[in-house]
Amino acid sequence: MQFKSILILSALQAALSTATVNGKKVNKPVEGWAKWESKGNLTGVGMGSYGEAVLENRCSYDIWAWSVDSVTGSTEAIQIPKRTTYREPVRKITLPDGNSAGVSVKISNTEMLQAKHHTQFEYTIKNDRLWYDLSFVDCALDKSSANCPGAEKGLKMDFSEKKCKIPYCPPGQYCPTQSYFVDTPVQKLGIPEPTFNCDDAGTSMNIYMHVCADEKPIKRSIAGRITMDEEQK
């Protein structure tokens, strides 16, 4: 399910606006996101009764995210301050030929998306089943994840549905059964691809993507798509 990381497919045609969280400005997603939420569907983009994709930045530093698919392209950089959470709707991507395609949420520790320096959370809805993975393909150096934002404190995906398998890479570890370190692990490493699914649980669950996963969870919600840590009050 790997996404080739020569970006960017085609940027959404909308300006970035800002919101204030804890006295500082943070980037909001482009207006294309509001368009998906209000209309429910664009050609090739299904919203349906799917859940939310929740990106939790437990790190002690800000990160930037890009939500990318092969139908709508990429959002602008979305700034996610330290100890905050960002939410967006899960979407099903269907190509013109009818085949399913995936969504890649790319993570950088700068506002520029640099080759070989970004972590990816990926998911696809196909045949009424949710498939997903962690990817270090665009940041790993051999067995090292040192260039992968958040990996030094662990990366994890979990779900509101208990049937979903949980990929987890411990802090700074080489974890090729939990995350892609190469694009074709069957051929290059002789192991199965680390792609997971939710079996027959459907597709309505929330997807939780944890950056710096071994740090303490974020507790307190505020209005909008941003969740702020209690300690930031």
Task: List the main descriptive attributes of the protein structure presented here.
seven-stranded mixed beta sheet; Thaumatin; disordered N terminus; 233 residues; mainly beta; 36% strand; eleven-stranded mixed beta sheet
Structural commentary:
The chain is mostly beta strands. It has one domain (18-232): Thaumatin, CATH 2.60.110. Helices cover 6% and strands 36% of the residues. The protein is built from 2 helices and 20 strands. The protein has helices at residues 31-39, 185-188, and strands at 18-21, 24-27, 41-42, 45-46, 52-57, 63-69, 73-74, 78-80, 84-89, 92-94, 100-108, 119-126, 129-135, 155-159, 168-169, 179-180, 196-197, 207-211, 220-221, 227-228. Strands 3, 4, 6, 7, 8, 10, 11, 12, 13, 16 and 17 form an 11-stranded mixed sheet that branches. The chain has a 7-stranded mixed sheet with strand order 15-14-18-5-9-20-19, covered by helices on one side. The protein has a two-stranded antiparallel sheet with strand order 1-2. A hairpin with a 5-residue loop joins β10 and β11. The longest helix is centred in the N-terminal third of the chain and has 9 residues, at 31-39. The protein is globular. Residues 2-42 have low confidence and may be disordered. Residues 1-23 form the signal peptide. Pfam families: Bys1. Keywords: Signal.
